[in-house]
Specification:
The chain has 303 residues and is of the alpha/beta class. The protein is built from 10 helices and 15 strands. It is globular and about 55 Å long.
Length: 303
């Protein structure tokens, strides 16, 4: 199985380190690095696809996807680094994930975080079979800068696939991040416009209790937020009591009859069910959920 690593960039000073990190992440698996940029990388160990006119990072990634020749396509960035061996491990995970996509937690303040929208995990950067990428469609270029990645993940979910986290790897920001200028596609107002597009496309699949605010729909969660207490499948606890367990998860656990150490109402239970469906789908799941037949029906995929 050949791997294509797509690396869009407009910053020449970031490219050498990004290429070296991508190669280390791929390990000894046969791979190619597809660089999409307006300048020649001047390296013999990559395939260069010239960006002849600036169209933004989303279009640049799609250009790289189109040029990729591998059976599996991975997207990386110039201002973050995957840990060594991350993409090699992702290939192994994809072997047991038909129709799915593999993503990585991101290290923020020494902790691993993941992105979620409507209670579903979406990879910031990912590996996916080329056939599945072609099947669901690539990045939607109707987005200007933001939300193309969760949109693609939702297309995987709605097609019957799963997005899974590779817990033994991570995305790490590099020290120079933010000191090399700003990409021109970060136009004023683009985030608001892109969120409106995303919510309009996907909000109809979920309960109205999610609301319409970005801060209620798009949440980054710490991976160690939830764990079993004492091995009891009917109890959950926080690893760090100073943290607040997301109310949606607690609402869901209340609704399905599990006990927890924090009592709250069920006003946001519909949102919690979306989270619980996602938590139950993870391998391994951060919580052990033991439910009866009636509750299993509630946990069916919402799509």
């Amino acid at each position: 199985m050949k791997l294509s690593v797509v690396l869009p960039t407009i910053f020449a000073e970031l490219l050498p380190g990004a290429i070296d990190a991508a190669k280390a992440a791929a390990g000894d698996v046969p791979h190619e690095i597809v660089v999409v940029s307006p300048f020649d990388p001047a390296r013999g160990d990559v395939r260069w696809v010239q960006e002849t006119s600036p169209r933004g990072s989303i279009a640049a990634a799609n250009t790289g996807f189109q040029a990729a020749q591998g059976d599996v396509v991975a997207l990386v960035s110039d201002d973050t680094r995957l840990t060594p061996g991350a993409l090699l491990a992702a290939l192994g995970k994809l072997e047991t994930l038909p129709g799915g996509m593999v993503g990585f937690p991101r290290v923020v303040g020494g902790e691993n975080y993941i992105g979620t929208v409507f209670g579903h995990f979406y990879p910031y950067y990912f590996a996916v079979r080329r056939a599945d990428l072609d099947r669901v469609g690539r990045f939607d270029e109707g987005y200007r800068k933001h939300y193309a990645d969760p949109d693609l993940a939702m297309k995987i979910w709605v097609s019957g696939g799963r997005c899974e986290i590779l817990r033994d790897a991570a995305i790490v920001d590099i020290p120079t991040r933010g000191n090399v200028g700003e990409a021109p596609d970060k136009a004023l107002g683009s985030r608001e416009a892109d969120f409106a597009r995303f919510a309009g496309l996907w909000g109809k699949h979920f309960d109205a209790a999610w609301g319409v605010e970005e801060t209620g729909i798009n949440l980054d969660l710490a991976l160690d937020l939830v764990q079993l207490a004492g091995g009891d499948a009917t109890t959950i606890a926080l690893r760090n009591p100073a943290k607040i367990l997301d109310l949606r998860i607690l609402s869901a656990l209340s609704l399905v009859g599990l006990n927890h150490r924090t009592k709250i109402g069920l006003g946001r239970a519909a949102q919690g069910l979306d989270y619980l469906r996602w938590l139950a789908s993870l391998d391994p799941s951060p919580v052990n959920i033991v439910v009866g037949a009636g509750t299993k029906a509630l946990l069916a995929k919402p799509f």
